[in-house]
C-alpha cells in the first residue's frame, strides 16, 4: 500500500493509504471519534470518498469511543460513496460500536466486513 500523507498533514486520529493493486483506499481511524476529532476525520473521508466509484475500506478497529458526530461522518461518507457508484466497507469488532450501530438503527447499513488480513 502507498501512504498518501499529502492528504492530511496532521491527523493524529486517522490516516489514509491507497492500494494501487486493487484501487482501494484504506482509512484507519483510532482513538476517539467525537465532536473534537470529527473535522480532521471528515477531511480524510471527503478525500477518500471523492472521485468516481470510490472503493473505501474504513478500519475502525482502533476506535475507543464514538459519539453522534462519528455516526454523522459515517453516514455522510456512505452516502457520498453510493452517490458516486462506489463502495464503503467498515472493519470493526468492538461491542460498543456494534451496540451504537444497533441502537441508532444503522446496524444493517454498517455491518462489519472482514479485515484485509483475514480475506481469502
Brief descriptors of the model:
single chain, 120 residues, alpha/beta, Transcription Regulator spoIIAA, five-stranded mixed β-sheet, 3 helices, 5 strands, disordered N terminus
Write the layout of secondary structure elements.
Layout (H helix, E strand, L loop, with lengths): L1 E2 L10 E6 L4 E10 L4 H12 L5 E12 L1 H16 L3 E5 L3 H9 L17
Parallel strand pairs: 3-4, 4-5
Antiparallel strand pairs: 1-2, 2-3
Description:
- The protein has 120 residues and is of the alpha/beta class.
- It has one domain (14-104): STAS domain (Transcription Regulator spoIIAA, 2-Layer Sandwich), CATH 3.30.750.24.
- The protein has three helices and five strands.
- It has a five-stranded mixed beta sheet.
- α2 links the parallel β4 and β5 (87-91).
- α1 packs parallel to α2 (68-83).
- The two termini are 18 Å apart.
- The model is unreliable at 1-10 (pLDDT under 50).
What is the CATH third-level topology name?
Answer: Transcription Regulator spoIIAA
Spatial ordering of strands, largest sheet: 1-2-3-4-5
The CATH architecture designation is 2-Layer Sandwich
Strand content: 25-35%
Poorly predicted runs are 1-10
The major sheet is characterized as: 5 strands, mixed
For the termini, the CA-CA separation is 18 Å
**Domain tally:** 1
SS-derived structural category: alpha/beta
Number of strands: 5
Query: Could you tell me the mean pLDDT?
Result: 85
Helix content: 25-40%
Q: What CATH first level would be assigned?
A: Alpha Beta
**Radius of gyration from the alpha-carbon trace, in angstroms:** 13 Å
**Shape type:** globular
Element string (H = helix, E = strand)? EEEHEHEH
Question: What's the total helix number?
Answer: 3
Amino acid at each position: 500500500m502507498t501512504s498518501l500523507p499529502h492528504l492530511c498533514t496532521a491527523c493524529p486520529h486517522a490516516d489514509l493509504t491507497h492500494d494501487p493493486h486493487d484501487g482501494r483506499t484504506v482509512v484507519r481511524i483510532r482513538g476517539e471519534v467525537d465532536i473534537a476529532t470529527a473535522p480532521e476525520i471528515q477531511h480524510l473521508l471527503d478525500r477518500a470518498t471523492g472521485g468516481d466509484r470510490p472503493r473505501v475500506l474504513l478500519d475502525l478497529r482502533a476506535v475507543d469511543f464514538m459519539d453522534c458526530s462519528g455516526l454523522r461522518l459515517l453516514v455522510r461518507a456512505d452516502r457520498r460513496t453510493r452517490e458516486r457508484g462506489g463502495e464503503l466497507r467498515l472493519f470493526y469488532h468492538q461491542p460498543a460500536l456494534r451496540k451504537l450501530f444497533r441502537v441508532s438503527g444503522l446496524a444493517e447499513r454498517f455491518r462489519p466486513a472482514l479485515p484485509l488480513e483475514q480475506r481469502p
